[in-house]
Amino acid sequence: MAAVSGLLGLKKSVGFEEHEWGSAKVLKDLDLKKLSRTQLRNHLEARNCEAKGGKKQMTQVLEDSLEEERLRAIAHTQAIESEFQMNRALEERGSVYAVGTGSSGQLGQGDTEPREVFTVIMKTRDLGVSLVSVGYDMVLAVTEDKEVYTWGGMGVGPTGIAVSAEESKADFLKIKSEAEFKNDGEADKFMEPRVIPVLQGEETIEVGIGASHAVSVTAGGDCFVWGQNTVGQLGLGNFERNDTPEILPGIQNNLPVVHIAVGENHNLAIVKSVEQDVQRVYTWGHVADGRLGVGTRERIGAPKDKKEFFHAPTLIDELVYEYALEVACGPSHCMVRTKNAIFSWGHGGGGRLGHGDQNDRYKPAVIEALQDMVCLGISCGTWHSAAIIMVAPLNACGEVWTWGSGYHGQLGQGVSNRSLSPGRVKEISDWHIYAKSISCGSHHNAMVDHSGELWTWGSNTNNCLGHSIEEREVSYTPVPGHCGGFGALVDRIGRGMARSVACGKEYTIVATYPYEGPTEAIAYELNEEAALRKEEEKLQAAQERHDQETKDRAGERSRRRGNIAVTDESREETKKGSTESILDKNMGTQKH
């Protein structure tokens, strides 16, 4: 047999058998002392070891080599486990998860691939993200420390970071393959979360994204704006673009902004006056379709090409006597929740305003179908809207009502694909599930229920719902489905309960609380206990079946014995009757 030299595990044929020379997997089952000199040499050379000396020396070299490999494997395993434990600790402190379309880096994974299941965004681990907000293909996130992070949009949207659109897009277009992508230091811009430096230390509490601009609000009531400004959507009194956040000039004597909502190219802001005990609604941006709610189609005195653009915050007079609690914007329609009612206005196509028709509204109008109900939350999608309606005696969660166009199942109202007035999502109510928050995407919805569980329904393009659906002929479902894995161990790592959820176009982003469930060891014990209980229940059920069968057989035997006794008794009665009949007959003959 020729000497074997080369790589570890080199295979060599001997007759009809094939041996893997030098393999620890093979050698562990062999008695090395019984190997021939030729076999020892082949194994040693395959392991790149010196094959000299006698058999005893060669055997010792082979043993030492195997022991060194074993120790290296242990060290490698320990290093991997140590790294895993460190990563697990980070993720379990609260993270952000993404699923669905990732073509513009909106999933924060460092690439543009879609994800079929909720996948952790590595750079959000331990950030304590408390709020997520999404645009078409871009995400903003606010942390507990009130910092703002951004990712997605190929870096050409309102990132808030001073990188030119041309530079960022050119970098993105360099990507030709995954290998090139990983080796290109510039190409990963905005494919993963990056902090917005200008907003550091500003104590941001809320953010919103439009098609090409963004808005944020601070704890002190300041409002920052950035991005494109072609239609005055920044509200700065001009039409100049701002790549980095700039504070919006004071609204009504510098009153604080407490809540904002951002549409495609318009905005709503709730401004608070403590002295007057009111919260009023201001708006600015593009007035098309009546989306600003100011009752007019153009700005008086403006140049002809700027008449539809309101480039400074404007009070919505129709709501001046209402105490506004929450505002919401779709691309071309709006809603506001006040202490007394829910109002909507803007584009009415598909019935998204909930007024029983498809007419546009240029002023806020009360949604009459919800007039006598207590609303806890609102959300606007592209062609549909949703509200959470309180159900007594609960006061912090309620039923989900939807309206508008639902050709992708986003209404959750069975086969209905359009509802001009609000209607209940029947399954959620029938299952006694109550919503705490709701987010409408372009064609799907996400809801966090009273126990922190996540539910989604509507379009499932690129698996953006985060769970499988029963439908096979279409890629959508009107039936709310549960997204498992939150508040549980997934691949040995604990995921917290859903804290904030936002739906974009064909993708979903979820921020979680820190994980508070059982540790891996406890979970293993619980699983073992559950398995034992299941086995005990199985044995108990089998014993009960056996006892019942024994009882049934005993009863059957008893019934049979009873039947035999009755038969014998019947024979005696028959025999006795026959004897008496014969005696009677004889006595009658004697009388005659």
From TrEMBL:
Pfam families: RCC1 (PF00415), WD40_RLD (PF25390). Residues 84-387 form the RCC1-like domain. It comes from the Eukaryota. Residues 537-592 are annotated as: Disordered. Residues 537-557, 568-578 have a biased composition (Basic and acidic residues). RCC repeats lie at residues 94-145, 146-220, 221-273, 279-340, 340-391, 398-451, 452-514. Keywords: Repeat. PANTHER family: ANKYRIN REPEAT-CONTAINING PROTEIN (PTHR22870:SF466), REGULATOR OF CHROMOSOME CONDENSATION (PTHR22870). This is RCC1-like domain-containing protein. It comes from Octactis speculum. The lineage of its organism: Eukaryota, Sar, Stramenopiles, Ochrophyta, Dictyochophyceae.
